[in-house]
Amino acid sequence: MNENRIKVHPILPIPERKEISFYWNGKLLKALEGEVISSALFANGIKIFGHHPKDGSSQGMYCANGQCAKCTVIANGIPVKSCMVEVTLGMHVESVEGLPVLPQVDEEPDTSNIQLLKFDVLIIGGGPSGLSAAIELGTNGIKTLLVDDKNELGGKLVLQTHKFFGSVEDSYAGTRGNDIGKMLAEKVMQNPNIEVWINSTALYVYKDKKVGIIKDGVYKLILPKVVLNAAGAREKFLRFKGNTLSGIYGAGAFQTLVNRDLVRPTNKLFIVGGGNVGLIAGYHALQAGIDVVGLAEAMSRCGGYKVHADKLKRLGVPIYTSHTVLKASGKEEIETVTIAQIDEKFIPLVGTEKTFECDTILIAVGLEPVNEFAEEAKTAGIKVYSVGDAQEIAEASSAMFNGKIAGLKIAKELGADIEEIPQSWYEKAEILKSEPGKINSMIIPTDEDGVMPIIHCIQEIPCNPCITICPTNSILIKDDPILGLPYYEGSCIGCGKCVTICPGLAITLVDFRKDKKFPIVTLPYEVSNHRVKIGEKVRCDDIDGNVLGDFEIIDIVDLKINNKTVLIKIKVPKSFAKKVVSFTIQKEEVTLATDKKPSDSVIADQEMVCLCERVTAGEVRELIKKGIVDINQIKALTRAGMGACGAKSCDNLIKQIFRQEGIPLQEIEPNTRRPLFVEVPLGKFADGK
Questions:
Q1: Could you give the dihedral angle defined by the CA atoms of residues 254, 259, 263 and 266, in that order, rounded to the nearest 10 degrees?
Q2: Containing H/E element for 503?
Q3: Cα-only R_g, the chain
Q4: Are 559 and 286 spatial neighbours (Cβ–Cβ below 8 Å)?
Q5: CATH 3.50.50.60 boundaries in the chain
């Protein structure tokens, strides 16, 4: 077990937790008290949790968020989602082989025990937007219930070890996401007007304006005046050959295992998707001591922030733009991935294929808002708002600020004495959710005397902590106070605060004061579990990851006040000093393509669309070609969308096939979603127990 646990992390503390025993298919194993079953299994090197009843293919992790059913196991005789249920002492966990036998229930339900509670506002989701809204509601005396299905508040903030973008004033820019989550959660928990239910899942908004919630396994009904949907987003899946193998999962699942549960789920990772989610996950992998073989992005440029992409390239991770994944291969688990270059019509180019050895493929190809609760509330006639990713996919800095606005709007609507929200707030909210903008040329100081910051941030993104922290006000921003490009003009004292606060690790310090021919360059470093030492020569890179040379480390500054950003001081020739941004930590051999022939995967040479019911793209395409444009009819004929996840993955994939066949989405009859958000034993609705 221990070899799969993260024992040293550059950002996260490693807490001491009691070991407990449990059984996996009759074998005695160790888990840590309080961790979920899936993480305990991964820690013990077990990634296959069972086999599908239709084709015998391996089942394992995908979302780690309770929204699919790939990780289902039998725990003490009951089928459960292993990513949502904690291990208990002596628990007997078994793999699902075929169709599980459900336990007999002999008790007669008592329908008088279901509790009905009234609140002014029900917030579904305790992530950045839900917490920010709750703080404003509670501060203004609004009786609020906040529910979240995890065992701690913070949502995806819990998983973020990097420093946030945005502004210091409005979104804690320069502070790490997991620290922001703790700060917001503490404010919520201390407010007497806010009741918090963790380990609680909202199931459905009924037409009688009640909301059904499972709290710690007990069913309750809530009657709110207003529903605020802050349920976040779910990850999109991708069609490719072999996409059902164990070891293919989303970025959220990966970050949950690595940054929440401190479990190393992989040794060699390949990433598909170059948005911020994929780029950040790659950085988190390096911090966890995991080799990142490469990243493929279908567009000609990564959709995430350039500073995130640059950071990966400088550390030694190749990024293949205009590439797509063709095939995953292996017997039951991932062994290799094959990618290929694509043309402007996204068609793979023959002869450009590359195959890499890896044991995990991380899918980061976009998010879809979890909007079911908002739609249900509208149908029921309840006043409803959506915020954060549940409203529109954007960065967490935007979600927090928009959550604050939503909380104040609802409080005012419910009678709180609040002034009108300034128009400038709405304008700032638009800025914080801005897409990455234009890439400009670097503004490099010409001086070769004294000390000065070199700012390698050349893309217009909403971020300004460097101008806030500079004690001499020597870093300024052109044009826009958040979106503009920062530049140096003034008198630097060499404090290095701008170097440590920059979320993109895009500021260095060049000091000519001791030696004008060989100035000292100060670099930010946050992967300190990849050890470096004074006197060692490291391979330094420029902004694009091009090698400049091997230069000597002369000092390492690791201070608490720098918020776990280590400062590495390197002596560099004057001609390179203003170009050096970082140094490579990953060996080139990790990223080389292999000549090894991919082994056949268990699944036939078809792209799977519905993982739950094992429906292929070919089956769906055949029906579309026959003229069927109703997704419900496709569901009835193939069972695509009738599985445990409730079409959360396959709905988007089926729509992609319609687009490929040239049928506009407005001509398609959409899927009618099942009433409940997740699977629930029927007995819960009878007596609440």
A1: 40
A2: none
A3: 26
A4: no
A5: 115-233+369-432
Q: Which two tokens stand for residue 436?
A: 């990455």
Concatenated DSSP letters of 421-472: PPHHHHHHHHHHTPPP--B---------SSEEEEE---B--SB-HHHHH-TT
Residue 52, SS3?
coil
Is 167 within 8 Å of 147 (Cβ atoms)?
no
Beta bridge partners of 213: 202, 220
CA distance 294 to 358: 10
**What pLDDT is recorded for position 338?**
95
To the nearest 10°, report the CA torsion of 538, 532, 309, 172. Answer: -140
Return d(Cα 656, Cα 634) in angstroms, integer: 14
Q: Which helix (H) or strand (E) holds 263?
A: none
Both tokens of 526, joined, read 């946050």
- Give the domain 115-233+369-432 fold: FAD/NAD(P)-binding domain (3.50.50)
Of the candidates 269, 579, 347, 265, the residue with the CA atom closest to the CA atom of residue 442: 579
**pLDDT given for residue 604 in this prediction:** 39
- For residue 327, the model assigns a pLDDT of 92
Predicted TM-score (pTM) of the model is: 0.91
CB 620 within 8 A of CB 609: yes
Name residues of the chain where pLDDT drops below 70. 1-2, 100, 102-103, 105-112, 598-605, 687-689
Here the tokens at position 59 are: 């089942």
Least Cα distance to 346 among 365, 326, 322 occurs for: 322
3-state class (DSSP) for residue 82: coil
CATH topology of domain 608-667: Arc Repressor Mutant, subunit A (1.10.10)
Q: Whose CA is closest to 167, among 343, 375, 456, 424?
A: 424
Q: Which residues is 21 bridged to in the sheet?
A: 30
Burial 277-286 (b: 16+ CB within 10 A, else e): bbbbbbbbbb
Query: What is the CATH number assigned to the segment(s) 1-101?
Result: 3.10.20.440
